[in-house]
Specification:
457 residues, alpha/beta, N-utilizing Substance Protein B Homolog, Chain A, Rossmann fold, 3 domains, four-stranded antiparallel sheet, 12 strands, 45% helix, binds S-adenosylmethionine
Length: 457
C-alpha cells in the first residue's frame, strides 16, 4: 500500500540515498511517485530530503555532541532518524518542537529501533534545552564556516582564497537557499512582454532579469512547469539567468555556422538558434545520445529548425566536416556554481575529481579550437567557480596556443533584437565573466571569449 506518512517517506528516500548512493533528485522522484501524499506533505518530504542531504555535516556534528556513541558506531538508520529530527528542530520553524520529538520517536519505533527510541527522545530534548546555538564550532575559519554551513573544508578553503571571509560566508548561505527558477523567452516566437502578460493573467508573478534581456524569474514556487502558460507553444525554456549570458557572449549572427561542442540537453544550443533568428546552421555535439535526444525534443517544441546533432566523443572526432564561425565549449564541470540546485553535489566532488575534470576540459578546448574558422570565435564556459577548471584551463590554453587571445566584452556587442547590451557590466579586467551567486543572484558561472590572431570577423 502506498505510504501516506511524509516522515516515513522521507526516511525511506534517505535510506535509498545512503545505501545505494542514488542521486538525491532521482531517489526523491521515485519515492514521491510511489507514495500517496497531499500536496503540502509532498513539499515537506522534498524539504526534508534536500535539507538533510545538504546539512549532513552540521547534523552529524550535533549527533557527535549529544549522543553517547560516536557517529560511526551508530546504526545507519538511527543516524538518519537523528538527521530528520534535528533538521526539523534546527532549520524549520513551522513544526512545533514537541511534534518533532513525538514524530521522530515514532519513526524510530516503526522502523525496528523501538529499543533506541529513548535515545532519540533524549538527544532531541538535549538539543532543545541547550542555550544559544548548541553547535560547537572549531576555531580555524575554513572549518568553522564549513561546519556551520555544512560543506567539505576543501570547498570553503577555495572560496576563502578567492573571496575572503565575509563573502565566503555569504556564498555559503546563498547555496543553502532554495534555487530560483528562470525562463528564457523564445524571442524567435514571442516577445518578453507577451510572456509576462500571459503569466500575470494566470496569477503567476514574474520579474525581469537585470542582465538577460530574454529572462524572467518566477517569484513563487510553481508546480509542474509543463502546466505553465506558453510551454506547449514553445514560448520559453527553463534556463538560469547566468546560463543565458553564454549565448550573448557567443553572439552568433544569422547565417553563420556555429558548433556547440558539448550541447546536451540543448539549453544553449536552442538559445543560439533563437539569437540567430533560426537562420544558419548550429551543430550540437555531445557524447550522450539520450541527453542529446532532449535537445532535439526541445528544438521541436521551440520550433527551431537550424539545429543538427552529432553524437560523438569530441576527443575521438578527427576533423569536423565544417569549420565554425563560432564554437562553444560549455564544458563538463564539477558544478560548484550550482550547489543550491544539487543537494548532494558538494559531497560528490573532491579535489581529485576537479583535477580529472580540468584535464578533460583542457582536451575538449584544444579539440574544439581546431574547428574554428580563421579569425572565428571560441567561447569556453562552465558552471563552476573553481579556478582550476576555469582561469587555469584558459591560462594553459593561451600559453600553449599563443595565436589565441581573450576578446573582452565590448560595451556594444551585436545582439540582434536585444537591448540593452547585457554583458559589459559583468566583465572583469582580465576579460572574462565570472558570476558569483551572492553578488549577482544567479547560478555561479565562468565564461570567456577567445579569438585567434587572424583576420577578425
Ligand atoms: C555542462 S554540460 C552541457 C550543457 C549544455 N550546453 C546545455 O546548456 O544544455 C556538458 C556536456 O558535455 C558532454 N561531454 C562530456 N565529455 C564529453 C566528450 N568527451 N565529448 C563530447 N561531449 C562530452 C556531457 O555529456 C554533457 O552533456
Amino acid at each position: 500500500m502506498p505510504n501516506s506518512n511524509p516522515r516515513q517517506v522521507a526516511f525511506a528516500i534517505l535510506k535509498e540515498i545512503d545505501r545505494r548512493d542514488t542521486y538525491t533528485d532521482v531517489a526523491l522522484n521515485r519515492g514521491l511517485s510511489g507514495a500517496k501524499l497531499a500536496r503540502v506533505d509532498r513539499g515537506l518530504v522534498t524539504e526534508l530530503v534536500y535539507g538533510v542531504v545538504r546539512r549532513r555535516r552540521s547534523l552529524d556534528a550535533l549527533i557527535g555532541q549529544f549522543a553517547r556513541k560516536p557517529i560511526e558506531e551508530q546504526p545507519a538508520d538511527l543516524r538518519l532518524i537523528f538527521h530528520l529530527g534535528l533538521y526539523q528542530l534546527r532549520y524549520l520553524d513551522q513544526i512545533p518542537a514537541p511534534a518533532v520529538v513525538h514524530t521522530t520517536v515514532e519513526l524510530a519505533k516503526n522502523n525496528g529501533l523501538r529499543g533506541l527510541s529513548g535515545v532519540v527522545n533524549g538527544v532531541l530534548r538535549q538539543y532543545m534545552r541547550s542555550p544559544g546555538d548548541p553547535l560547537k564550532l572549531p576555531d580555524p575559519v575554513a572549518q568553522r564556516l564549513a561546519m556551520l554551513h555544512s560543506y567539505p573544508d576543501w570547498i570553503v578553503e577555495k572560496w576563502l582564497t578567492q573571496l575572503g571571509e565575509t563573502e565566503t560566508q555569504q556564498l555559503c548561505e546563498w547555496f543553502n537557499r532554495p534555487p530560483t527558477l528562470d525562463l528564457r523567452v523564445n524571442i524567435h516566437k514571442v516577445s518578453v512582454a507577451e510572456v509576462e502578460t500571459a503569466f500575470q493573467e494566470a496569477g503567476i508573478s514574474v520579474e525581469r532579469l537585470p542582465y538577460s534581456p530574454q529572462g524572467l524569474r518566477l517569484l513563487k514556487k510553481v508546480g509542474a512547469v509543463q502546466q505553465l502558460p506558453g510551454f506547449e507553444q514553445g514560448w520559453w525554456s527553463i534556463q538560469d539567468g547566468s546560463a543565458q549570458l553564454v549565448g550573448y557572449l557567443v553572439d552568433p549572427q544569422p547565417g553563420e555556422v556555429v558548433i556547440d561542442a558539448c550541447a546536451a540537453p540543448g539549453g544553449k544550443t536552442t538559445h543560439l538558434a533563437e539569437l540567430m533568428g533560426d537562420r544558419g546552421t548550429i551543430w550540437g555535439c555531445d557524447r550522450q545520445h539520450s541527453r542529446l535526444k532532449k535537445a532535439i525534443q526541445n528544438a521541436q517544441r521551440l520550433d527551431l529548425h537550424s539545429i543538427k546533432t552529432l553524437v560523438a566523443d569530441l576527443r575521438e572526432i578527427g576533423d569536423f566536416s565544417v569549420k565554425g564561425d563560432r564554437v562553444l565549449v560549455d564544458a563538463p564541470c564539477s558544478g560548484l556554481g550550482t550547489l543550491h540546485r544539487h543537494a548532494d553535489a558538494r559531497w560528490r566532488q573532491s579535489p581529485e575529481s576537479i583535477e580529472q575534470l580540468s584535464v578533460l576540459q583542457q582536451e575538449l578546448l584544444e579539440k574544439a579550437a581546431s574547428w574554428v574558422k580563421p579569425g572565428g570565435i571560441l567561447v569556453y564556459s562552465t558552471c563552476t567557480l573553481d579556478p582550476q577548471e576555469n582561469e587555469q584551463v584558459i591560462g594553459r590554453f593561451l600559453d600553449q596556443n599563443p595565436q589565441w587571445r581573450i576578446v573582452p566584452v565590448r560595451s556594444r556587442q551585436r545582439c540582434p533584437a536585444l537591448s540593452p547590451e547585457p554583458l559589459a557590466p559583468l566583465s572583469t579586467p582580465e576579460g572574462w565573466i565570472k558570476i558569483w551567486p551572492h553578488r549577482h543572484q544567479m547560478d555561479g558561472f565562468f565564461m570567456v571569449r577567445l579569438q585567434s590572431s587572424q583576420e577578425s570577423i
